[in-house]
Amino acid sequence: MKQALRCAGFAAAVLLLSAAARAGDRDEATGATGVTLYEVSERVTFDEVEGVVVRNATSPLQGFAALGTPLCPSQLLISVPKIDSCTVIATGTDSVSTQTGLGPVSGTFDVVINAPGNSSVHVPDLPVISGTFSGTVDLSLAVLHRVPLGSIEGVFTITQRVDPATGTLVALSQPVILPFRGTFRMPFQLGAHGRFERSRRDHAAFYLADDLRRIIPVKAFERSTGFPDVRLEASFGP
Predict the structure, then answer these.
(1) 18-32, 60-74, 148-162, 202-216: least confidently modelled range
(2) How far is CA 194 from CA 141, 189, 218, in A?
(3) What are the Cα distances from residue 44, in Å, to 132, 155, 185, 199, 201?
(4) Can you give the C-alpha Rg of the chain in angstroms?
(5) Span 137-148, mean pLDDT?
(6) Backbone angles phi, psi at 81, to 5 degrees
(7) Tens-digit pLDDT profile for residues 186-231
(8) How many CA within 13 A on the CB side of residue 196?
């Protein structure tokens, strides 16, 4: 993470990232210590393993890493002093027991910029950092008590970084391992007597704060084609 990307040709491509990462509301969601990802969609199946029903889910994710954190190193954006965050895309798969709410999770991720030739409003799509992640999810509050919160603990592993001389990804001789912990916030709507209900596309939606009392309104950018997204807030560190 300590290598600066100084190639002038690549710096020109990095400049295209600025238009995709300045939105104030969006950047607030990254927090100060890590990455915030949103579940854009989800494909779910159920299996029975040794008498226990397991929920298998695969989701494309998109979100933002705070500047100065491992997935958005300041050196990468040295030519863009006004940048506030990096765009991160990922695909994750988990298998969670419907009895305990626990299970493994794994996937791949890319830190992306807007590729040369794209318009300034095009979704960022050119990877400059790539890798994998794995860990354990704990959705016991949601599964057992219908509280719309969950947690995750694991590692991001950076396996590739862009070569400033060629603009292509190259494998790192020494992968960078980043332990992280995170919180899932599942959107809901408030029903009668303030009860949590499954959020619907045409209703106001909320996330639950860590104190289990305060509610956080889902913002416009936290919806995919109108549906409120599950939000994952991850912080790096042991």
Answers:
(1) 18-32
(2) 18, 9, 17
(3) 21, 24, 18, 18, 19
(4) 19
(5) 94
(6) -65, -20
(7) 999 876 655 666 666 667 899 999 999 999 999 999 999 889 999 9
(8) 18
Question: Cα dist. 218→100, 187, 191, 202, 209 in Å?
Answer: 28, 7, 16, 13, 12
In whole angstroms, how far apart are CA 62 and each of 4, 19, 54, 166, 175? 25, 17, 25, 26, 23
Instruction: State both tokens at 48.
Output: 């029975």
Q: Which of 70, 137, 153, 129 minimizes the C-alpha distance to 103?
A: 137
Q: Please, which residues have CB within 8 angstroms of residue 14's CB and are 6 or more apart in sequence?
A: 5, 76, 77, 79, 80, 113, 128
| Arithmetic mean of pLDDT over the chain | 82
Instruction: Check residue 214 and give its pLDDT.
Output: 94
Q: How many CB atoms lie within 10 A of CB 173?
A: 5
- Position with higher pLDDT, 199 vs 235: 235
d(CA 71, CA 126): 15
State yes or no: pLDDT of 101 exceeds 60. Answer: yes
How many CB atoms are closer than 10 A to CB 192? Answer: 6
CA distance 155 to 99: 25
Which residue has 């493994």 as its token pair? Answer: 104
Judged by DSSP in three states, 185 sits in: strand
To which H or E segment does residue 123 belong?
Answer: none
Residue 149, beta-bridge partner list: 185
pLDDT at 197: 64
In terms of C-beta density within 10 A (0-12 exposed, 13-18 middle, 19 or more buried), how is residue 36 classed?
A: buried
The pair of three-digit structure tokens given for residue 122, joined into one six-digit string: 């095009």
